[in-house]
Specification:
The chain is an alpha/beta fold. Helices cover 31% and strands 18% of the residues. It is built from 23 helices and 30 strands. The strands form six sheets. A ten-stranded mixed sheet has the order 6-13-7-8-12-9-11-10-14-15, with helices on both faces. Strands 27-28-24-23-22-29-30 form a seven-stranded mixed sheet, sandwiched between helices. A six-stranded mixed sheet has the order 16-19-18-17-20-21, with helices on both faces. α4 crosses α7 and α19 packs across α21. The C terminus is likely disordered.
Length: 805
């Protein structure tokens, strides 16, 4: 208005169209001022101005805001034109607390800067008529704000008030399934219902709360009996819960909180932030995060959360509203049915949730957030794709190509890439759960229908047994496969815009690899350069008796290690915790299976090594959730005194054999580490010290190997990728060690290091036209050498028992 321009603004799918007319100098002033004056949290992508021949300027300079045509969203895994949900801004929180304001205590207050977005969108582009608020007609007061260009709620599509917006309802016990009566919502109704909900929580009851992207289960975090009850009912015996707090000061006595962590906690995405427990580690909230070195903490993500936690006055457990292994409940009727037997009461509202969204999770590493789960508050916002190295001349040819990458089966999070941007879908869950499979299949079909008209390319993990791979193979589009660990490395390279050559440590639970002896990878050092990639070294493989069962039973991985190390190690008195975890008959049967290679595949997985050490230290024998062994091992290490020392993890060269047809390559030999650990156990060294020595030994070995590999390859940048690097002690120790060795480490920050980031790596493999088959020109023993190389083991050279190959 100040520039006296006329025209039209329209929010169209994927962009904003602005048609303006006026004096040339004023139009240029508009282009110059727009990047500086755009209100937060809006982000301005590169402008593409197009100057048209002058026309007659409208005498009364007005700008009309047009309504774009709706493109319905189904599952809506990815929605390029939508923004992420935002926690309440400071201005809305001030009104929420002001008794004189007409929105005082209103649980759904919002404005242009905050409120629900992706979670309520039913169509693109974003407009009130394209959301689950469409049926809520604005009252005259709200309409006046909506139409006033000087008001911060000008064209704020999510606004409302007690007179015209959504309302709360509280359903308790057996009354929950009864129909709700209609009527006009009243401001005092919300306050009364919230107070009643707080009374139930104070009595130790479990409350199901309809949040932004789905239901949450809440319980008083200070009530150990109530937390234990929630665990029993939800069938979640040990996996850590998150805490909802009203103010960071509530948790400062229990957790360390530096300036960077505080900033992450207060971000408008309102993520769960993993905060280190204060030393000495104490169970300040018994049963909330047993054995974990950190507490997951979040601030209120919505006005309703703010009102509830403020009224309750102390931390609440806030966990997903589902039974373990199931998808989130999003609809009140569904929640009442599925959460019966878990929740005692349901605090619901009548603003429908368009799609389930879990909470985002992160930790702060080296002063910067590192995502563990990318979901509510961050999805569906785009990430930039870097220019393909050496392909500037063909960028215009690559840009229009549509890629749909399916990621992995665990922590499923597919991606859509168009031109220079990629959209990662929010965390879906594990595809072993039927409804998650269905969401992925329907979501991929929707993406292909909407974006694949000009041709699309599907990318998946190379593992033929992955459900995501099988889904891609059934689609009528070109399909490419990317090796699991290569995708892990490329995801970090794409995020940090790294050119080759790069060294990449890829450590995770398990992934399919091209190795006829040990095809289950998870402890690899890769070299990635312009000609492709090759595997320089790996963890020495060991058997996993029972194959898939060993992933859930650390005692099996530990038994595989002991058997591979030989009789003296197998019968070492320091191995008592693992050996006692089996009956004599069970142990004998498994040892026979290992010896005959019956359902006992070899694996180089660092994740399974962590599990095995957790078993040997008596921390975990059978898991109740994924990653529990590594988490308990990290928690034990966090309790150790400073400078506890390190176990040896030397490199040796595995000899090639004619039968295997593989060249020599480096193997990080775990046997000296295990022998030292068993000796410490037998000598009564505290478990925390043993756990810390294990972590330190891993970091020091990574440094020595990477320095040696850097001399050979010329690569000074080292990628740390895969789910094992969610372990803060391992990641921070590796960062310090690599920097001390003169190398520059990189790790996932905006994209999870775990399988939730695989899709980005898959996209980047295709964009770089990187050969997916590994190169065979491995370094010789003289080229790749680390001082202190371990001795050879007899098992390494006996074809019938090549467990240590």
């Amino acid at each position: 208005m100040a520039l006296e321009l006329a025209g039209e603004v329209e929010n169209v799918r994927g962009s904003v169209r602005i048609d303006l007319e006026g004096e040339r100098d004023r139009l240029e002033s508009f282009l110059e001022r727009l990047p500086r004056e755009i209100p937060p949290p809006a982000q301005l992508e590169p402008l593409e101005p197009c100057w048209l021949p002058p026309t007659a300027i409208t005498p009364a300079a007005t700008v009309r805001i047009a309504a774009g045509a709706a493109t319905p969203l189904g599952i809506g895994l990815v929605a390029p034109s939508l923004a992420a949900d935002r926690a309440p801004c400071a201005a809305c929180l001030a009104e929420l607390s002001d008794p004189a304001d007409r929105r005082f205590g209103y649980p759904f207050i919002s404005c242009c800067s905050c409120g629900p977005r992706f979670s309520i969108a039913t169509a693109e582009p974003f407009a009130r008529a394209h959301t689950s608020l469409a049926s809520f007609v604005l009252c005259p007061s709200c309409r006046q704000e909506f139409d006033d260009p000087h008001n911060r709620r000008f064209h704020a599509e999510t606004i409302g008030c007690p007179a015209c917006g959504p309302r709360l309802s509280l359903r308790i016990g057996a009354q929950a399934a009864q129909p709700q009566t209609s009527g006009s919502p009243r401001r005092e109704d919300s306050a009364t219902l919230i107070q009643r909900a707080c009374e139930l929580l104070g009595d130790g009851r479990i409350l199901a709360l309809q949040g932004i992207g789905g239901f949450q289960l809440l319980v008083d975090a200070s009530n150990a009996a109530a937390v234990a009850q929630l665990r029993r009912r939800k069938q979640r015996p040990a996996k850590p819960f998150a805490l909802l707090v009203g103010d960071p000061a509530w948790i400062s006595a229990h957790c360390l909180l530096d300036a960077d962590e505080l900033e992450a906690l207060q971000h408008l995405a309102a993520p769960i932030v993993l905060l280190r427990r204060r030393a000495p580690v104490a169970e300040s909230f018994p049963g909330v995060a047993p054995g974990s070195p950190a507490m997951g903490v979040m601030l209120p993500a919505s006005p309703l959360h703010h009102l509830l936690i403020r009224a309750f006055g102390r931390p609440l457990v806030a966990t997903s509203g589902n039974r373990s292994g199931e998808t989130l409940c999003t609809d009140p009727a569904e929640a009442i049915e599925r959460l019966a037997g878990i929740a005692d009461a349901w605090l619901c509202h009548d603003r429908p949730i368009a799609r389930p969204l879990d909470d985002s999770v992160l930790q702060v590493i080296d002063g910067r957030p590192a995502l563990i789960r990318r979901a509510r508050g961050l999805a569906p916002e785009a990430l930039p794709l870097p220019t393909v190295p050496g392909a500037e001349a063909t960028t215009s040819e690559l840009a229009p190509q549509v890629l749909v990458a399916l990621g992995g089966d665990l922590k499923s999070a597919p991606a859509l890439a168009i031109g220079s941007r990629v959209w990662l879908a929010p965390h879906l869950g594990d595809l072993a759960e039927g409804s998650c499979q269905q969401r992925l299949a329907e979501g991929v079909a929707e993406l292909l229908e909407r974006h694949g008209g000009g041709g699309a390319l599907l990318v998946s993990d190379a593992h033929p047994g992955y459900l995501s791979h099988q889904l891609a193979a059934t689609q009528p589009f070109e399909h490419r496969e990317v090796p699991h660990h290569l995708a892990h490395a490329l995801a970090v390279m794409a995020e940090h815009r790294l050119d080759a050559p790069v060294l990449a440590y890829c450590f995770d639970g398990l992934g399919y690899g091209h190795d006829p002896v040990a095809p289950l990878w998870g402890g690899e050092l890769l070299q990635i350069d312009g000609d492709g990639w090759r595997r320089l070294a790996s963890l020495r493989p060991f058997p996993l008796p029972g194959a898939e069962r060993a992933m859930a039973e650390p005692r099996r991985a530990a038994l595989g290690l002991l058997a591979a190390a030989g009789s003296a190690v197998l019968h070492h008195p320091g191995a008592r915790h693992t050996l006692a975890a089996f009956s004599q008959d069970e142990r004998q049967l498994l040892l026979q299976a290992i010896a005959s290679r019956c359902n006992s595949p070899l694996s180089s997985s660092v994740g399974r090594l962590f599990d095995a050490v957790a078993s040997l230290l008596g921390l975990a024998q059978v898991l109740s959730h994924e990653g529990q062994g590594g988490l308990l091992l990290e928690g034990a290490a966090a309790r150790a005194p400073a400078d506890p020392g390190a176990y040896p993890l030397p490199l040796r060269m595995a000899a090639a054999t004619a039968k295997e047809g593989l060249p020599a390559m480096g193997r990080l030999d775990w046997q000296p580490l295990i022998e030292a650990l068993l000796a410490d156990q037998d000598a009564g060294v505290p478990t925390s010290v043993c756990a810390a020595r294990f972590h330190n030994g891993m970091s020091q070995a990574f440094q020595a190997l990477a320095v040696s590999a850097s001399r050979h390859t010329g690569a000074a940048r080292v990628v740390l990728a895969g789910g094992c690097f969610q372990n803060r002690i391992l990641l921070e120790g590796s960062i310090r060690a690599l920097r001390a060795g003169g190398l520059t480490p990189f790790w996932g920050e905006r994209v999870p290091a775990n399988d939730g980031g695989l899709a980005l790596g898959q996209v980047w493999a295709v964009r770089c036209s990187l050969p997916i088959n590994q190169r065979e020109d491995l370094p010789s023993q003289s080229q790749l050498h680390v001082p202190g190389r371990s001795r050879s083991h007899p098992l390494d050279h006996e074809p019938a028992t090549a467990i240590g190959a």
